[in-house]
Design brief:
Length: 144
Amino acid sequence: MIKFRHLIWTTIATAGLMREQQGDGSALFNIARNLGGSVGTALLSTMITQREQFHDFRIGERVTAYRLQVQSFLNSQAAHYDQQGGDPVLAAKRAYKTLQSSVQLSSFVMAFSECFLVVGSVLLAGALVIWFCKKAKAGAPAGH
């Protein structure tokens, strides 16, 4: 199925070229597709990392041991881990680890949501650009 879709996109991309130019057009299309995919993946990966760090820092500013909600969460988690048996110090460490994991998960969700918004905006902008493109005249070779 993947090869069939690739063949369709290549055929569409080289449809307006003369037969002797179609091989070069196909190669250029494949290079652009691979390069675009690599650059897009790298940009999104960088954005996710930076935004996750930003959100982790911002949430961490608000999640301190002096807030009543944080103290309540830590106490309930420590009590839960303490009931499972073991050391109260270990239970407190596990409670802090649970809090850290919760903050990190929230940061990742926020970062992925922002990246999804960026990708959606780029796709919408691309759709608008395509909407306003002129249609090629039938029978006229491309580039003329």
